């Protein structure tokens, strides 16, 4: 019987929650997939073989207890499943929505290797925690006994919010400083609602506020206060700003009207979804309606831009990428969703220049081929001579990734140590920067990465800061006693 219970995946097909019809979902910014009904979620969770070495957990940056909460879900013990899922992640329902499971847990599922299709881990994770919110199982953040020490967190993205939560639970007074008018970072302004509806993020933020974490929104470090001023105001500081500087396309015409950065475009769209007045959207500069749109890039941000343009009513949407489908960095699921919704992918193409002078009218592109592997191990693209072509474009969106801003200059702290890429340098053991009591975590340390890694980094740095602050408090007690 035990063996039979571990082989349910043989006779039970893989089934994700149904996606809304492409023509329907392309008209709004709601999430594209419906939720499981409880029997279906339990049925899919029961496909887990409970294998001896859970590669799904191994390949999850948070090392979530995936087989255990799948088993509890299959048994209908949803509250216990939620509590176990929540034990290792501050945002399980967000990870369930936006993690590239096909490259992490599900892509390394033993059942996937056997040819029967992975357990639908992300969809079950989302189901568990959404159910917990509806049933009132998500408990308030309860601060630990006050320690008399305060912490500043710069950046209200996933790394900063995760660290803030753990530090508050440990009893610290926590202040979060963010230059945007809403917390959440890229979760709020960089990821479209069709992947992550904004109330899902806002309820997490409200829980942190209700737990006594103080948010200073619209606060730009370097303008409203220098880093040094925050160091004097708090016992420790965490830099968790993420990386926001858009990589440029170094070709003729890149400064033309209509050539815009991906994050500016996505932020304008998300602000519009919040009901804000967005001048750049109203005047058409950040609105794709009726335009021929070309998105340059092959990552998840490019997919977000492509699918947003479709929903804004673009005349045509093309994605230009210099490698082929097999070598693109973005999620294959996102590519499939975009194609279903009407996007066209122009593989093995790279921009040579933007036509039109003051205002863009087209993209001149080179046909590429894949040559020898580059430093990353992927085959390097190289231009085919004499194979240029022209794509009509009224709007070009640059989605080539992000680099770190010049934080030493931005924060007015020249002595902050950074790498040649601008990322903040930290000690590998203490996670402290070159400045005493100043820590850093998330993308500003590792470079542009996944939300789940930012959560992991926030968890790790909170632990390191707790150890340092405890030692500092003991030293202060000894000094006072000696005095």
From TrEMBL:
Top-rank taxon, per record: Bacteria
Transmembrane recorded as keyword: no
Keywords: 4Fe-4S, Iron, Iron-sulfur, Metal-binding, NADP, Oxidoreductase
Domain FAD/NAD(P)-binding, first and last residues per copy: 150-458
EC numbers on record: 1.4.1.13, 1.4.1.14
Residue stretches making up the Dihydroprymidine dehydrogenase domain: 25-136
Classification via InterPro entries: DPD_II, FAD/NAD-bd_sf, FAD/NAD-binding_dom, GltD-like, Helical_ferredxn
MF annotations from Gene Ontology: 4 iron, 4 sulfur cluster binding; glutamate synthase (NADH) activity; glutamate synthase (NADPH) activity; metal ion binding
Electron transport listed as a keyword: no
SUPFAM superfamilies with a match to the protein in the record: alpha-helical ferredoxin (SSF46548), Nucleotide-binding domain (SSF51971)
Cofactor(s) named in the record: [4Fe-4S] cluster
Designated name of the protein: Glutamate synthase (NADPH/NADH) small chain
Origin species: Sphingomonas pseudosanguinis
Lineage, uppermost ranks: Bacteria, Pseudomonadati, Pseudomonadota, Alphaproteobacteria, Sphingomonadales
């Amino acid at each position: 019987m035990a063996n039979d219970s571990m082989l349910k995946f043989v006779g039970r097909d893989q089934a994700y929650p149904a996606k809304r019809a492409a023509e329907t979902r392309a008209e709004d910014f709601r999430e594209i997939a419906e939720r499981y009904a409880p029997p279906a979620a339990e049925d899919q969770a029961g496909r887990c073989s409970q294998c001896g070495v859970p590669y799904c957990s191994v390949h999850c940056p948070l090392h979530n207890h995936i087989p255990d909460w799948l088993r509890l879900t299959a048994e209908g013990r949803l509250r216990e499943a939620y509590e176990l899922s929540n034990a290792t992640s501050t945002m399980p329902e967000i990870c369930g929505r936006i993690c590239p499971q096909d490259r992490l847990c599900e892509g390394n599922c033993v059942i996937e290797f056997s040819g029967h299709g992975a357990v639908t881990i992300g969809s079950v994770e989302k189901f568990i925690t959404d159910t917990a919110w509806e049933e009132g199982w998500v408990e308030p953040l309860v601060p630990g006994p006050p320690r008399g020490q305060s912490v500043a967190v710069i950046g209200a993205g996933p790394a900063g919010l995760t660290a803030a939560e753990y530090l508050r639970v440990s009893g610290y007074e926590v202040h979060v400083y963010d230059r945007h008018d809403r917390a959440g970072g890229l979760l709020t302004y960089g990821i479209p609602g069709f992947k992550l509806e904004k109330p899902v993020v806002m309820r997490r933020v409200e829980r942190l506020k209700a737990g006594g974490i103080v948010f200073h929104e619209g606060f730009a470090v370097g303008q409203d206060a220098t880093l040094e001023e925050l160091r004097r105001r708090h016992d420790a500081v965490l830099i968790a700003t993420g990386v926001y500087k858009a990589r440029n396309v170094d070709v003729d015409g890149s400064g033309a009207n209509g050539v815009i950065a991906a994050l500016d475009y996505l932020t304008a769209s998300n602000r519009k979804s919040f009901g804000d007045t967005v001048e750049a959207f109203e005047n058409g500069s950040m609105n794709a309606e009726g335009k021929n749109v070309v998105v340059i890039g092959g990552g998840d941000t490019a997919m977000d831009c492509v699918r947003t343009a479709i929903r804004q009513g673009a005349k045509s949407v093309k994605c230009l990428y210099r490698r082929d489908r097999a070598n693109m960095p973005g999620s294959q699921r996102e590519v499939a969703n975009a194609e279903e919704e009407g996007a066209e992918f122009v593989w093995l193409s790279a921009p040579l220049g933007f036509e039109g002078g003051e205002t863009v009218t087209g993209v001149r592109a080179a046909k590429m081929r894949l040559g020898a592997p580059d430093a990353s191990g992927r085959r390097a693209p190289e231009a085919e001579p004499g194979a240029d072509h022209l794509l009509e474009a009224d709007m070009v969106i640059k989605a080539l990734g992000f680099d770190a801003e010049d934080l030493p200059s931005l924060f007015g702290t020249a002595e902050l140590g950074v790498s040649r890429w601008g990322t903040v340098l930290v000690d590998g053991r203490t996670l402290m920067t070159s400045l005493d009591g100043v820590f850093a975590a998330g993308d500003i340390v590792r470079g542009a990465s996944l939300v789940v890694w930012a959560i992991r980094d926030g968890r790790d740095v909170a632990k390191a800061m707790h150890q340092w602050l405890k030692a500092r408090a003991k030293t202060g007690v000894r000094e006072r006693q000696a005095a």
